[in-house]
Amino acid sequence: MSFKPVSIVVPGLPTEDGNRVPLTRLVPGQGHRGADAFRAMDPFLLMDHFGPMVLPPGTDAGFPPHPHRGFQTLTYLIQGAFRHRDSTGGSGLLQPGGAQLMNAGAGIVHEEMPVPEHLETGGPIEGVQLWINLPKAQKRTAPGYTDLQPEAMPWQTLPGGRMRVLAGTWAGVTGPAVAPARIAYAHLELEAGGRFQHSIPAGWIAAAVPLHGSLRIEGTEVPADSVALLGEGERLALEALTPVSFMLLAGEPLREPIAHYGPFVMNTREEIEQAIEDYQTGRMGHLD
Known about the structure:
about 290 residues, mainly beta, Jelly Rolls, 7-stranded antiparallel beta sheet, about 10% helix, globular
């Protein structure tokens, strides 16, 4: 049995998004630019680690109304709370340990903003948003979203740590998020010296993303807020160099053309131009 080596470690890119929300853009990371950056981890398009930060009282830090088309977003909250609203009439509360799977499909306008309690008192916020590409045949499906409550993906005990599975199957546990793209996605926490191994389907990409602390994978150290993209092999094997909190991703590449502009990811430039026109003319809907 062969173990997957680290192909490359890509540092995240510190930036801000929305209303002054500090984040680290992990995918595409530093040095990745243009359309090729959105192919590097096919079928995953973008991954942001937002926070950790403490919102001051009266803050409006969050993600005001903005559009998406052509992919899914999977937003996972580690601490704090956000309220969601979208142009389909959907609304919900994102809680610690919970997630939200949104299908942008043919187009949606949504917002994620602090809950009223945070507006009054302030409070901590931290989470991860992942963009998952939709296959060409699914890019014009009806938009919508699903709340994934913490009880739907409880912590599972591991030797030297614990794991929460959001999508796909890890260590015999299957997560509740379902995507047309074949993926597996989990949050793990390990004590220093803790180890984890798992097989990866042939032909799938795989990556480990420490949020806090550091890992070692086949002799390569992977620091916090960076992405270790793994190479060929049947199995991943990693060790915690410090107490570590990290995300694991694996997925089957779609290998389809990618055209990208801001919040739209389609297959051709003409489809991007149509998405811009549809948003500007209100055909993606509005938030009241």
